[in-house]
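Supplementary Methods. Inverse-folding protocol.

Structures were first reduced to a discrete structure-token string of length 934. This string, shown here, constituted the complete conditioning input.
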């Protein structure tokens, strides 16, 4: 048992039941060894320099972290990544295979095309490998050598590294890279040497010509770890050491739900030297050998000549308990374990959650306590999160989902769970089901709390957890780049205090819209440009006092009035920005430009129109958390934040108070017509969401359960260019007795526009013209809407941003239009729909669509949108709460004014929805996406 790379201490071997502090039965893992070596940074990876280095092969399906297209094998995108150290710093090397090396992006956006992303954390123990990023933890983009250009290394984010060195060369199959990072980049490392802890990860981004406008279409990272840009916890713990250790990379799942066929691959680096016979061994928790096999092996060819890949497939029927180990045994000299990897069986966890759902008897509960029954749909969505975490081998999301499941079950069983000092504690707000407080977790460190009345979201509060209170305070001061911070710490009455805590607040906010830069008016507007991000913000001249930039450019063709306004603005500033040429301005982070004609350097930048709108924003640092809320009503925002900070179960009367205030502040029509009340009510849902059948996180079943948990009356699943997942879940809902208005939808995704169509019977081809695609949808009697108008920055979209669908046959416009109030005055407003466009598996964005109709069905939704009886609800953006035709907005406010009928209707709808529902067997269904239409 010599030369162990992994040494495991066990906090518990068998699961004794899930709980709010549940952990994997492995508490410690011995770090990977980064050996000592002397390296010359010349772009040539010499074997004598790199042979003993830690080598992480990243060249198989096991390492795919993101795939918006099919990976074609190691020569399409693959890498050997090397790490070593000496007294000067850390050294990174990469031998990359790439059939097309393309990167036309700026250093700040290099990840969108061919790029190596190197992640390194050298912070002290209390911050080490913990989010968020701070000085000493870096994401480094490496643009490869292309043509005659040398490679470029850039640190992403505010904390930079001085004295980095990079070199590289093109090769027959791709390119090689060497990078040096000095120890001075890590202020917490006082005396680097043996025993120094370092966190490492690497991602290879691949882009080919066929990917067109896709950003980061394919990425591979070591072990397929995701979200590395925000998740240092997914780095690999390494330790610097003088003496090298032989390393074999094992590729196998670390999490399983079923004990069945279990494939194991083993890889070596190409500079490891001669390798003797190796064996793959399966051991139980006590180290007893269950299986041992010699894998079938093969050698790679150039550029990784001599690298070995081995494979064997085990059957796990004989494995007992909740944990076992995969070991690599080397037969070179004396037999010894090179690496030992734990594998955790989660079948017992899954059984416990399903048993809790069975005991609740959701069918029966829905008839006596319908809002509590809905809570079990939230548990079902958590179960789907666990399945996805296992599928993606994501231990941090697994732990979070199991703990969330345990907390939800305890609350639904009317038990008080112990506080954990993390975002999970906010589930206690939902202890009274009738209050309709929904708590979601879009990220493991983020809670989203939405207060509902029936199916209508009233207000949303966001909670983000940081490592310490200083980080929370810093986050409270984040602002839009290039603009002043509108939030203040004091007001005319003194310091801003909310719930007894110092807070930051503003009654005004920036709101951005996609903009056609050809519509820029030099007589009325100025430009705020962020060159590194290739972004232009178009600002009305009278709002120049909101600008906060590093430099100023005044071109010769600027109007005299604009020039005078800019000069007056500069003279009013205490710190004067520099006047620059346009070329020098392109080297800054932010610059104000006064011009007549748009400079050529900006022609490929994405443009936005910035308005300052009346909207309340509140941020309250609360211990090591940041509580934030955006809402059109300052009072509603403050009241919701107070309820969240209180961390006590929210009462129905608390939400009733919010609803009444909202209606009193915004209702402009209270006709209270008996005719209106008898003919129509309001139904609320989401018409744009994604599952893992395209680029979303959660499964289709998980998405539909989450939508029901969020009290939606209707929901459309609209994956990119496929209806496969939506069709599957539609059939499963029917099979298992759910009476829910679910719409099969598709986001028709092209390089020039994105449309949503629903309900559909068959997929719509996405390779035709806009007119042809719209016609295909109409042939199915489907609604077709323009998604996030302007997002693709294409001429098709930009030329239509000022036209309310007048030159198209589209049915609806998604999100708040820039010209909403102008169109409304002219009586040319298109049908509006609100949506989340969610990808993270939650509906934490509270934007929704309301339809005013006598009932909710596919036909009711289609008819309502065609007749402009749809209302965009926007509790977190804009000056209004509802957007649409005045008559129907008035009707909706009427219904919300005296809303007990609305809540009773929701109660009855839940009873009907779940009367025959079999949640347990829905969760047991097995299905997977095909490659058809992908």
């Amino acid at each position: 048992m010599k030369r162990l790379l992994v040494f495991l201490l066990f906090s518990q071997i068998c699961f004794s039941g899930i709980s709010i502090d549940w952990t994997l039965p492995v508490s410690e893992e011995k770090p990977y060894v980064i050996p000592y070596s002397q390296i010359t940074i010349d772009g040539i990876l010499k074997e004598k320099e790199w042979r003993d280095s830690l080598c992480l092969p990243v060249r198989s399906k096991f390492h795919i972290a993101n795939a918006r297209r099919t990976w074609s094998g190691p020569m399409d995108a693959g890498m050997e990544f090397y790490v070593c150290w000496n007294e000067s710093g850390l050294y990174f090397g990469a031998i990359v295979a790439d059939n097309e090396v393309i990167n036309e992006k700026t250093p700040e956006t290099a990840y969108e095309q061919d790029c190596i992303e190197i992640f390194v954390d050298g912070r002290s123990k209390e911050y080490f490998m913990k989010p968020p990023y701070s000085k000493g933890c870096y994401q480094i983009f490496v643009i490869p050598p292309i043509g005659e250009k040398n490679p470029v290394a850039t640190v992403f984010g505010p904390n930079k590294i001085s004295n980095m060195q990079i070199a590289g060369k093109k090769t027959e199959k791709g390119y090689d890279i060497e990078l040096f990072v000095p120890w001075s980049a890590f202020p917490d490392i006082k005396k680097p040497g043996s025993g120094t802890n370092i966190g490492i990860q690497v991602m290879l981004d691949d882009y080919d010509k066929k990917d067109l406008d896709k950003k980061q279409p394919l990425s591979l990272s070591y072990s397929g770890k995701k979200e590395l840009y925000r998740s240092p916890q997914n780095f690999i713990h390494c330790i610097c050491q003088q003496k090298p250790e032989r390393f074999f990379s094992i590729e196998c799942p670390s999490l399983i739900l079923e004990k069945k066929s279990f494939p194991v691959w083993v890889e070596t680096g190409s500079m490891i030297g001669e390798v003797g016979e190796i064996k793959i061994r399966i051991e139980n928790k006590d180290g007893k050998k269950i299986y041992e096999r010699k894998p079938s092996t093969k050698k790679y060819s150039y550029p990784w000549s001599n690298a070995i890949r081995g494979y064997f497939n085990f059957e796990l029927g004989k494995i007992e308990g909740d944990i076992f180990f995969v070991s690599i045994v080397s037969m070179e000299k004396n037999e010894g374990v090179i690496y030992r990897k734990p594998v955790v069986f989660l079948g017992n966890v899954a059984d416990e959650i399903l048993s809790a759902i069975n005991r609740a008897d959701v069918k029966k509960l829905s008839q006596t306590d319908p809002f509590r029954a809905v809570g079990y749909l939230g548990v079902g969505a958590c179960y789907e999160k666990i399945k996805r975490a296992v599928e993606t081998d994501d231990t941090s999301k697994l732990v979070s989902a199991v703990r969330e499941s345990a907390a939800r079950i305890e609350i639904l069983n009317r038990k008080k769970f112990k506080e954990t000092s993390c975002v999970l504690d906010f589930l206690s707000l939902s202890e009274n089901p009738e209050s309709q407080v929904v708590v979601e977790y879009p990220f493991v460190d983020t809670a989203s709390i939405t207060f509902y009345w029936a199916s209508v979201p009233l207000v949303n509060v966001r909670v983000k957890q940081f490592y310490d209170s200083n980080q929370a305070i810093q986050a409270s001061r984040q602002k839009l780049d290039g603009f002043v911070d509108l939030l203040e710490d004091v007001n005319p009455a003194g310091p801003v205090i909310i719930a007894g805590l110092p807070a930051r607040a503003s009654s005004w906010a920036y709101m951005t819209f996609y903009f056609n830069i050809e519509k820029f008016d030099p007589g009325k507007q100025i430009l705020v440009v962020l060159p590194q991000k290739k972004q232009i913000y178009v600002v009305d001249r009278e709002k120049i006092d909101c600008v906060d930039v590093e430099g100023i450019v005044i071109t010769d063709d600027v109007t005299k009035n604009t020039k005078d306004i800019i000069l007056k603005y500069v003279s009013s500033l205490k710190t004067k920005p520099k006047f620059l040429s346009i070329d020098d301005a392109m080297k800054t982070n932010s610059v104000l430009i006064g011009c007549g004609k748009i400079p050529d350097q900006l022609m490929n930048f994405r443009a936005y129109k910035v308005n300052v709108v009346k909207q309340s924003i509140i941020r309250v640092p609360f211990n090591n958390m940041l509580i934030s809320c955006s809402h059109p009503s300052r009072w509603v925002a403050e009241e919701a934040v107070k309820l969240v900070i209180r961390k006590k179960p929210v009462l129905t009367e608390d939400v009733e108070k919010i609803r009444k205030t909202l209606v009193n502040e915004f209702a402009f029509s209270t006709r209270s017509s008996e005719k209106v009340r008898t003919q129509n009510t309001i139904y609320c849902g989401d018409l744009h969401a994604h599952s893992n059948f395209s680029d979303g996180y959660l499964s289709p079943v998980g998405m539909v359960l989450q939508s029901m948990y969020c009290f939606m009356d209707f929901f459309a699943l609209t994956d990119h260019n496929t209806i496969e997942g939506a069709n599957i879940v539609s059939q499963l809902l029917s099979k298992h007795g759910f009476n829910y208005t679910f719409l099969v939808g598709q986001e028709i995704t092209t390089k020039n526009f994105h449309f949503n169509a629903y309900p559909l019977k068959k997929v719509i081809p996405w390779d035709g013209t806009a007119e042809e695609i719209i016609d295909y949808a109409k042939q199915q009697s489907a609604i077709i809407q323009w998604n996030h108008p302007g997002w693709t920055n294409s001429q098709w979209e930009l030329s239509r941003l000022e036209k309310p669908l007048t030159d198209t046959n589209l049915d609806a416009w998604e999100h708040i239009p820039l010209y909403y109030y102008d169109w409304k005055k002219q009586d040319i407003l298109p049908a509006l729909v609100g949506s989340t466009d969610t990808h993270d598996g939650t509906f934490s964005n509270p934007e929704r669509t309301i339809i005013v109709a006598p009932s909710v069905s596919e036909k009711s939704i289609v008819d309502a949108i065609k007749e402009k009886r749809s209302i965009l609800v926007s509790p977190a953006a804009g000056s209004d709460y509802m957007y649409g035709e005045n008559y129907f907005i008035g009707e909706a406010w009427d219904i919300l004014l005296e809303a007990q009928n609305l809540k009773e209707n929701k109660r009855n709808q839940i009873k009907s929805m779940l009367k025959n529902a079999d949640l347990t067997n829905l969760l047991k269904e097995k299905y997977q996406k095909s490659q058809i239409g992908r």
